[in-house]
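[step 3/7] inverse_fold.run input=structure_tokens len=198
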């Protein structure tokens, strides 16, 4: 119950029933950015732990993005905090070149609270219209335990995501890690951007 947020165990103090915290409701299957969906639900939504680097793609990323192994890709990592509490950590890889044009994401974190898909549309005129999702569960590493302020090995929900243009070619791939009890995920089989109703 502590891992799901129903109880709050504090070393040396005891176990408490926390004040009810409003959950973020997000519908998977559309292309609405997490931060935008949170703002629409009345949360103060901020990205923290922003890291943007140009890195060499590993074999798996190369295969998903259909690029040569060892090609450069952008690594974009950030944590979504709602009302000051971390609810999701997003880690994406993005092609560094699309249709022969170099993509520069170095300003993404510096421009403030901008979603990746919005930024790609702005700097590269690239629209992500389709998302492939694979849902899963993992255990929090020490890094995720620190980011989310949970115990190491606490369960986290995951969604592996591939972002595609309408032509079907993959532009982004990555993963989002969510804290159960802070986020309610819904699946929208229609693929539009409908928001789950409370």
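[step 3/7] decode complete -> sequence:
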């Amino acid at each position: 119950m502590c891992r799901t947020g129903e109880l709050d165990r504090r070393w040396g103090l005891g176990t408490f029933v926390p004040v009810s915290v409003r959950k973020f409701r997000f519908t998977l299957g559309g292309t609405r950015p997490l931060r935008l969906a949170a703002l629409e639900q009345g949360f103060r939504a901020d990205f923290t732990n922003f890291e943007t680097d140009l890195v060499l793609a590993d074999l798996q990323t190369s295969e998903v993005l259909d690029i040569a192994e060892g090609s450069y890709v952008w690594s974009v990592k950030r944590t979504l905090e709602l009302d000051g509490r971390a609810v999701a950590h997003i880690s994406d890889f993005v092609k560094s070149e699309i249709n022969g044009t170099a993509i520069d994401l170095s300003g993404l974190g510096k421009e403030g609270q901008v979603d990746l898909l919005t930024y790609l549309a702005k700097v590269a005129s690239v629209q992500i219209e389709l998302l492939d999702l694979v849902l899963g569960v993992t255990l929090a590493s020490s890094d995720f335990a620190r980011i989310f302020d949970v115990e190491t090995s606490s369960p986290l929900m995951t969604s592996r995501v591939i972002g595609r243009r309408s032509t079907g070619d993959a532009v982004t791939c990555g993963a989002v890690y969510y804290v159960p009890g802070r986020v309610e995920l819904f699946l929208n089989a229609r693929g539009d951007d409908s928001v789950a109703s409370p």
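[step 4/7] annotate
The CA atoms of residues 99 and 124 lie 10 Å apart.
Residues 191-198 have pLDDT under 50 and may be disordered.
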